[in-house]
Amino acid sequence: MAKPSLKAAFDAKKFVVAPGIYDGISAKVADGMGFDCLYVTGFGTVASHLGEPDAGIATYTDMVSRVSRFAQMSRTPVIADADTGYGGLLNVRYTVKGYEAGGVSGIQLEDQEVPKKCGHTPGRRVIPAEEMVLKIKVAVEARTDPNFLIVARTDARTSLGLEEAIRRGRMYGDAGADIVFIESPESEAEMVEIGRSITTKPLLANNVEGGRTPILSKQRLAEIGYGIAIYPAVGFLAAAAAYERAFSHLKQMGDSNGLPAQESYGFTRICELMGFPEVWEFDKRWAVLDK
């Protein structure tokens, strides 16, 4: 079931900051940090699982087990990327049911054509707004838990302009989406216009370091009308940089001696994060019988 605290946060007009998670370690670390929400990034999950670009390659089957595992292992509510719903209206219905059954607290659906592409890369095309409205209505009907939130994303800004993106955002909110996500506005002025134009539902800001949209402070985002900021790439960008530095040291030196302390999480600490002390305690208690 969805965790009710996320919907309660939005109902209380609390601004939500959500880091991107994409594997078990990132989920474990983020879950212990006290955030109100975690965001399962499609880009990062596809990259870590398949080693492929976020370009419509991952299927519902690829994703549902992973996002469900992230949700079930986390005390923090999880919003998970579900691309286009992986097909037509029936696919959307099954996707919503599968994500909800997996313990996800919110699902993100977008209006791109299949195959979809990452929202901060070129070449995205969108389906007619009316088709997306039907997808949202199906999603609303498919959920059984009122705490399960539906995030409706439009990628129309890049190909059809800001005015059309705002029109779609309004339509998607009217169709029943709980959160409206206008992807990749290209200036603060555009974000201000979005906040001025869509006031009935919380707005989501997608903050990608090096992406198409300026990264504003949470205070500024709240001031101009946004309710949630996701940072899908911050974790895997940092992890990739750390991998590169550590592996470079290993390649150059031939061993890990002298690796700066900040480049290593520490074996003892990672064992604690992953729950090994509980395993060791179990082994001690049952050691006599397990022979």
Kindly list the characteristics that best describe this protein.
single chain, about 290 residues, alpha/beta, TIM Barrel, eight-stranded parallel beta barrel, 8 strands, globular, Pyrv_kinase-like_dom_sf, lyase activity, transmembrane, transmembrane helix, ICL/PEPM
What is the secondary structure topology, with strand pairs?
Layout lengths: L3 H8 L4 E6 L2 H8 L6 E3 L1 H9 L9 H14 L4 E4 L7 H13 L4 E5 L18 H14 L6 E6 L1 H5 L1 H13 L4 E4 L5 H10 L5 E4 L11 H6 L2 E6 L2 H20 L13 H8 L1 H11 L5
Parallel strand pairs: 1-2, 1-8, 2-3, 3-4, 4-5, 5-6, 6-7, 7-8
Descriptive report:
The structure is a single chain. The protein folds into 2 domains: 4-239, TIM Barrel; 260-291, no CATH class. The protein is 48% helix and 13% strand. It has helices at 4-11, 24-31, 42-50, 60-73, 89-101, 129-142, 156-160, 162-174, 188-197, 218-223, 234-253, 267-274, 276-286, and strands spanning 16-21, 38-40, 78-81, 106-110, 149-154, 179-182, 203-206, 226-231. Strands 1-2-3-4-5-6-7-8 form an 8-stranded parallel β-barrel, surrounded by 8 helices. It is globular. The two termini are 40 Å apart. The mean pLDDT is 93.
